[in-house]
Amino acid sequence: MTNKAIEITDLAKVYTNGRGISDLNLVVDQGDIFGFLGPNGAGKTTAMKMMTGLMKPDRGDVKIFGASITEDYVNAMKHVGCIIETAESYPYLTANENLKLFARYYPGVDQRRIDECLQITGMLKYKNEKSKKFSLGMKQRLGVAAAILSKPKLLILDEPLNGLDVEGMLDMRKMIKRLAEEGTTFFISSHLIHDVELTCTRIGVVYGGKLVNVEYTRNILTNYSSLENYFVSEVDRNGRV
Ligand SMILES: Nc1ncnc2c1ncn2[C@@H]1O[C@H](COP(=O)(O)OP(=O)(O)OP(=O)(O)O)[C@@H](O)[C@H]1O
């Protein structure tokens, strides 16, 4: 049994305008809360779309718990929950009805598990409200509730803290840490340096379509005192775009 949750090899996707992401090599271990940190346009979403099979790579491959996303998609995605770009829900359905709809994909998920996910994400009190009335933060939480229904071993979340207020961010961070303690591995993209520093155990800096470095948060804080210092140093070392 591999302890690698994600293994990315020579992954590349370059759009016709020359932008995208190239030469991505990365291993995320089980138990990591991995932060994929980079500014707008760095290539994070492009990489995550390929990692979850939403976009075909020009070359390279991604293995999730040992199964190739390009050759064995069903097995690769079997233990993955993800939110890429925005957490979508049906606006005229309640939180509970939305989750019941998702639950149809998973034979083992019953009303008890739905209630549990609503409780974990702080959405139980809004269970019977329609999602069209939800704030962005509530929609994000409902998205996470849907993503964790099947108890996935790996959660891939694209900018989960985007648009959240301070309280929403604190709640989301608490939830991520709680799930990580229970054994979930995370791959989280963000451009919010401070938040990645507080949330993630290991960080990859992506800049101008390339992964410039990967390091444990504790080492970064020991050697650079803040993630911001490390980020600036890595970007300078690799040449600003
Ligand atoms: N469909 C597309 N066609 C052409 N260029 C694209 C396309 N999608 C993204 N790009 C470009 O590729 C680069 C990487 O985009 P991507 O969305 O992966 O970045 P990102 O790091 O997720 O940014 P953000 O934080 O703003 O979401 C950007 O320069 C973007 O303009």
Automatic annotation (TrEMBL):
SUPFAM superfamilies xrefs:
P-loop containing nucleoside triphosphate hydrolases (SSF52540)
GO MF annotations, alphabetized:
ATP binding; ATP hydrolysis activity
Residue span(s) of domain ABC transporter:
6-233
Keywords assigned by UniProt? ATP-binding, Nucleotide-binding, Transport
Similarity-based family: Belongs to the ABC transporter superfamily.
Which named protein is this?
ABC transporter
Organism per entry: Paenibacillus abyssi
